[in-house]
Amino acid sequence: MPSIDVYNIEGKKVKSVDLKEEIFGIEPNEAVVHSVLVNFLANQRQGTQSTKTRAEVRGGGRKPWRQKGTGRARQGSIRAPQWIKGGIALGPKPRSYVYTVNKKEKRLAIKSILSSKVLENELVVVDALDLKEIKTNAMVKALNNLKVEGKALILLPEKNENVQKSARNIENVKTTLVNTINVYDLLKYNKLVVTLDTVKKLEEVYA
Questions:
Q1: For the segment 55-70, what is each residue's pLDDT rounded down to a tens digit?
Q2: What is the model's pLDDT at position 84?
Q3: What is the 3-state secondary structure (H, E, C) of 125-141?
Q4: Residue 2: pLDDT band by 50, 70, 90 thresholds?
Q5: H/E element holding 11?
């Protein structure tokens, strides 16, 4: 069972807690993480790209020259794909790229990344993020106290306006909730900052 230190908002160690083995101590499954990440990115695509076929391009109703006797190759329309300003052959059309993966795969991918964060010492646990007011400086100071460098994802158990609004203007820092986390954000941000309540909720949701 993995154990991790808990700090307060001033950056001082408060205690240590044991994390659930089945969520924070499994062997990361890179293949499943990759599969779920590709699915997430595919589902974000708008699929609105479009080109015109030879039937949709303006003009080209008349045959450019007679079929035989000119010495040139036969042509039926000046809007065929081989002509300048012609239609596009086999070009993209509006479509949906959405597809689904199993819920068990998504859960395994999340648990794999959480376990890798623990293994790589990229998980920072705080006893609580109690900001009395919405103040960016207070959040910057807290992150500096916790020695959080680089890109950081702050994971909250529930909506906390003071924390969310204090962090929204900090470069490379993002806040999200336990019930809206995704593989892309967990991989994009190298540091994961969680509270004790967040750990409990993760263990409830992914147990």
A1: 999 998 899 999 999 9
A2: 94
A3: EECCCCCCCCCHHHHHH
A4: confident
A5: none
pLDDT class for 206, splitting at 50, 70, 90? confident
What CATH code would you report for 3-45+101-205? 3.40.1370.10
What's the rounded Cα separation, in Å, for the pair 82 and 176? 51
Residues 6+ apart with CB under 8 A from 152: 143, 172, 173, 174, 189, 190, 191, 192, 193
Report the alpha-carbon distance of residue 132 to residue 200 in Å, rounded: 23
Tokens of 112: 């794999």
CA–CA gap between residue 30 and residue 163 (Å, rounded): 32
Residues of the chain with CATH 3.40.1370.10: 3-45+101-205
DSSP code, position 26: S
Q: How far apart, in Å, are the Cα atoms of 35 and each of 72, 110, 112?
A: 52, 12, 13
Q: What is the dihedral of CA 22, 12, 167, 187, to 10 degrees?
A: -30
Rounded-to-integer distance, Cα 29 and Cα 22, Å: 13
Q: Residues near 99 by Cβ (< 8 Å), separated by ≥ 6? A: 39, 42, 43
